Amino acid sequence: MSEKSPFGASRSDLWAVLIVGGVIVVSTLVGLVVRLVEIVPNRDVPVTVQLMGERLALPLGPNGEPLSGEVSTATIQVSDMPVATYVSALGAAIVPALATIGVVVCVMVLCRNLMAGRFFSRANTRLVSAVSVLIALGWLISFLFSTMASNGALALVADRELLESVQFRVDWVAVLAAMGVGALASAFHAGERMQRDTEGLV
């Protein structure tokens, strides 16, 4: 029979968390390697660009007949990117992967602590705070790198009129997630303080 933690989780539950976290880490690393293989040679690098409702002829009709459509996102291939664009493309690939791995590792350690019955502790508060910071900084730095890579790639192949149609989209999901986890960190901190006060009264 499997051992139970103080709040009912078994050793198999811990292994399930570790396995799922390990799968996410490995898949993230594989995706990062694939992306770096595309970027590092600096030849025909696919770069995603954001456009403001640009109308283009798309081969979507019968027998590939072009149809007019509105495009807000496109992937273009560029070669011989300048240093700034090249570094930005690398950063846009590396930063989200590292942030994801960092978040997963923190969550795995947090789950281990919770399953061991360690709830409101300084370590758990720091782990939750680290998750919030990783989400926020990962999103911000990734957004900056992606924007710079997009602008640099378009500058190589597009005319000025198209460059003026570039728009920036903010992923509010990441922002809200960072805020939510930050609120959770505050709750952990309050619980930790209450636990210390309670222990001091005993």
Automatic annotation (TrEMBL):
Name of the protein described by the UniProt record: DUF2975 domain-containing protein
The species this protein was found in: Aeromicrobium phragmitis
Stretches that traverse the bilayer: 12-34, 89-115, 127-149, 169-188
Keywords: Membrane, Transmembrane, Transmembrane helix
Keyword Transmembrane helix: yes
